[in-house]
Amino acid sequence: MWKGAGGLSARGLAEAQDDLGLQRGGGAGFEYTRLSANLLCDDLEAAFALYAKVLLEAHLHDNDLEPLLELSRQDLLSLEDSPPDKLFAELRQRFYSSGHRDPVQGTFQTLESLTPDIVRTLRTKHTPQGATLALAGTFDWKEVQRLAQKYFGGWSGPQVDLDPVTLEPQFSGHLEQDSHQTHLALQYAGVHPSSSDWYAFILAINVLSGNSSSRLFAEVREKRGLAYSVSASSELMGPLGFLSAYAGTTPERAEETLSVLRAEIETLYRGVNADELERSRISLLSSLIQSGESARARCGSLGRDYGWYGRTRTLEEVEKALRGVTLEQVNTFLEGHPFENPSILTLGKSAVSQGVAVMG
C-alpha cells in the first residue's frame, strides 16, 4: 500500500509524510489491517488526504513486489535467531486449524506463489464495512466528520466476513534446535473481553505474572532459580481468549521448570488471596493511567474497544470495573474455569517430558 498511491511513488509518499512530520505505523494482522499516524492537529486534513490515497488508490508496479517478498523472507529467517518467537510461531501453527495458524508475514511456500496481480486483488478486502476510525488528542469532532465524509464518503464495497477461528485438538510437541536454553510454551483456554468474566480473568493472570511479587516470578525465578524469563499473558483471536505462558531455562532443569510452571497455573482454581488481588488490581490500574496519558495508546484502545464491544469505553468505566471486582468473584471464576489440559510445545536440544505436573 505504501509502494505508491494516488499518483505518488513510494518515495513521493515518504516525502509527503516527512513534509507533515508524520510518524506512521500499523501493518497487517491476522484479521485486520491497521494504519496509524502521529501528527500535529493543524495537519489533520493533509493526513486524511494522504491516507485516503494509500487506502483507496494504492497501486503496485510489477517490479516493486520482489523487494517486499525478500523482506518477508528475511523476517521468516530471523525467527531462527529468536527461539521464543520461533516457538510461538510453531505453537500457533499447531494450535489453530483455521488460517490463523499461518504467520502474518506468510510462509516460504505462500510467498513463492504470490504475483503482482494476486496482491492487487487483495485491495478488494479493504472495504468500509467493518472499518473503524479512531482519534485521540486535540481535534474538532464536527471537522473530523466533515473530513471523513470528504475523503472516505465515496468508499464502497461489500461486507468481508472473517474466517471462523477453529482449533486443533490439545497436543504436546517438541522442536529440536541446537540451543543453550530450552524454551517452553503453554496455551490454555481462557475468556474473551466480551465475557462478563473478563476482568476476573485478567486480574487472575496478573496475580500469576503482573509484577515482581507475582506467583510465577516468585516461585519459578526467585525461589527456585529455574528461569530468568517467565511470564503469562492473555491472547485473543477472533471471539476466543486464551492464557499463554512462557519460560526459558537450561536443558537440565527444563522438566522441573515445566512441572512448576504448570503447577502454579493449574492450582489457581484454589483461588487467590486478598493481598494478591489488591496488588494485581493496583498494577492494572497503574497501567491504565499510564496508557491514558499517551494519545497513541489511547487511540489504539479505542479501536480495539470498538472491535470487541461495538462501542468505546471511557477510562473511568474501565477503572470502575477493575475496582468493582471482588475477591469472591475472582475465586468463583477460577473455581468454575480451571486452567487445565494445555497445549504444550518445547524447543531445544532434547525433548521435555510432557507429563502432568504434580498438583500437591
Over the alpha carbons, how many angstroms does the gyration radius reach? 23 Å
- Helix/strand order: EEHEEHHHHHHEEHHEEHHHHHE
Tally of distinct domains: 2
CATH superfamily of the largest domain: Metalloenzyme, LuxS/M16 peptidase-like
Extended strand count: 9
List the quaternary state of the chains. Answer: single chain
Tell me the β content.
15-25%
CATH fold annotation of the largest domain? Cytochrome Bc1 Complex, Chain A, domain 1
**End-to-end CA span:** 55 Å
Task: Describe the protein in words.
The protein is an alpha+beta fold and 360 residues long. It has 2 domains: 4-152, Cytochrome Bc1 Complex, Chain A, domain 1, CATH 3.30.830.10; 172-348, Cytochrome Bc1 Complex, Chain A, domain 1 (2-Layer Sandwich), CATH 3.30.830. The chain is 45% helix and 16% strand. The chain has 14 helices and 9 strands. It has helices spanning 10-20, 44-56, 65-78, 83-95, 108-113, 116-121, 141-152, 198-209, 215-223, 254-266, 274-292, 295-309, 315-324, 327-336; strands at 4-5, 8-9, 23-28, 33-38, 172-176, 182-189, 227-237, 240-249, 343-348. A 5-stranded mixed β-sheet has the order 5-9-6-8-7, with helices on both faces. A two-stranded antiparallel sheet has the order 1-2. It has a two-stranded antiparallel sheet with strand order 3-4. Strand 1 and strand 2 (8-9) form a beta hairpin. Helix 2 (44-56) packs parallel to helix 7, helix 8 (198-209) packs across helix 11 (274-292) and helix 9 runs antiparallel to helix 10 (254-266). It is globular. It starts with a strand and ends in a 12-residue tail after the last strand.
